[in-house]
Every structure is written in structure tokens, then in C-alpha cells.
Specification:
The structure is a homodimer. The first copy, chain A, is an alpha/beta fold. The first copy, chain A, is about 40% helix and about 20% strand. The interface of A and B includes residues 53, 74 and 90 of A.
């Protein structure tokens, strides 16, 4: 591979993960974790597959990354996720001490990194990651819009 | 077993779980999930064992309970936990649609069900569990105090 990869490059990998979720009839959200310019974990939402509301893309990615580095402390790591994290995932990002979070589309209903709240900024927690918002926001959002449109049409047919 | 079990009875089981964490040199927090008066999941903090900041007692209990009932939606279930949940766990409780949360000791530094914030009450999320606070608070808190005192003494010796 030539040259240093950009935020958009890593978000494209997260988008590929979101596409996998879509194909599996899961809400299409994908995440990757990067350390020293290398992807160490990639994951997508698997709530339905695993029957667990805990298995958001971010949580699955964090679990994979911690296994990879052998430490719960994800120092020097950045998380890329296609949708703004919910309260649970924003909390998990703080708990795991991720250096940086980059997200695509905002989640105006449930987002906790800028929409409903900015969890690490609004509260005196013990860690505050850098945040970058809106990377490939349109593509990330379009995938979700398409998924939910399909769901509504399916519902009408039934 | 005779008679209906009380909140204190279930919190005692959560405390047993917290004791297991203590014995394993983990921050002593335990949780149980109850449905129709029956314990369907019991768990303790396993952050160090699993090298994952995601593996708080509540998350482990939720994952066990969802496996047991075969559904991510924990309708009709109550979670008992010895310490007030953090933002991640409060978010997981909302995401899993638990009917009720009962906790022991407050967490004045990181608690998101009454201390720093009351996540389901303060934000327009899509679910709001009933909350009961302070059940066996002293015992739950004393276990944590003892654990951290031991850690400080250990540190002094080294």
C-alpha cells in the first residue's frame, strides 16, 4: 500500500462492515479500530444474530481489539464508526480509553457524541478521546436510510 | 424455597458474585438478572480476566440473560447490581429494555443512574426502566472500600 491512509480510507473499511450487516439484515453500522496506521479490528452490528442489544458494532470492535492487543486499555487506538455512538458505546469508548473516535453520520435521536449529549465533554469522566465527526457522513447515512426504507416497504407488503 | 424473594434477597446473590470478583482480584461488583422471580443470569466484573473494559458485571449478566431467553429484548426482567451503573452500563440497560434496575451503593464519580446523571430520565431515550436505589448499599459499598484499601496497602509494600 502506498502513502498514509486517511480518515476516509478507514471509514470506507467501516462502511464495508456496515454493508455486511445490511446483507445479514442487521441495522447497517460498521466499525474499525486502528493502531499505528493498521486496522486491528473490524466489526459490524450483530444485535439480531447474537440476540443481544449489547452487540453494537463499536462493542464488538472493542472486544476484538482488546483481544488483539492483550490489554483493556486501548491506548494509541482510534475507532472509526459509521454512525454516532449511543450512550452505551460512548461509555465503552471512554472505559476503553480509546485515543480518538471518528464517526460518519450523526444520530440525532440517540447519539451521545454531539447530538443528545457529548458524553466525555459534558461529564467529568476519567478520559476524553479526541472526536472527529462527519467523515463520509452522507454515504454512512444513506446506507441506513436505504435499510429502513426497505424495512418499511417490506412491512407494507406483509 | 418458601415465600416470595425480596430485593434484598436478590441483592445478596449479586453480593456473592461481587465476592467472586474480589477473590479473583477484580473490582468487586456483581449483578443478577431476575425474571418472574427466578434468577436467569448471574455475573461479576471480569475486566482484568477478559482484558476488556466492556466486561462489567452488568454487561456480562445482560449477555447471559439474552442467551437464556433467546431475545435481546429483556422484557419482564430486573437487573440487580451492587454498584450504580456507569454510562456504558446504563446505556446497555436502556438498549436491552430491562423493566427495572435495582442497585446497591451509589457511584458518586461515574454513576449514571442518579449520581453524575440519570441517563433514562435526563434524555429522551426510547425506554425508561424503573429504578430502585440503595438496596444493601452499605454492604455493597464496604466490599469495594475493602478492596481498594487492600490495593493501596499492597502498593505501599511494593
Amino acid at each position: 500500500m502506498k502513502g498514509k491512509r486517511t480518515d476516509e480510507d478507514f471509514m470506507r473499511i467501516a462502511l464495508q462492515e456496515a454493508e455486511k450487516a445490511y446483507a445479514a439484515d442487521e441495522v447497517p453500522i460498521g466499525a474499525v479500530i486502528v493502531k499505528d496506521g493498521v486496522v486491528i479490528a473490524r466489526a459490524h452490528n450483530e444485535k439480531e444474530k447474537r440476540n443481544s442489544a449489547v452487540r453494537h458494532a463499536e462493542i464488538v470492535a472493542i472486544e476484538k481489539a482488546t483481544k488483539k492487543v492483550g490489554n483493556w486499555w486501548l491506548e494509541g487506538c482510534s475507532l472509526y464508526v459509521t454512525l454516532e455512538p449511543c450512550a452505551m458505546c460512548a461509555g465503552a469508548i471512554v472505559n476503553s480509553r480509546l485515543d480518538r473516535v471518528v464517526y460518519g453520520a450523526p444520530d440525532l435521536r440517540y447519539g451521545f457524541l454531539g447530538s443528545l449529549a457529548d458524553l466525555p465533554a459534558d461529564y467529568p469522566l476519567n478520559h476524553r478521546p479526541q472526536e472527529t465527526r462527519g467523515v463520509l457522513a452522507e454515504e454512512c447515512g444513506a446506507l441506513l436510510t436505504s435499510f429502513f426504507r426497505g424495512k418499511r416497504e417490506q412491512k407494507k407488503k406483509n
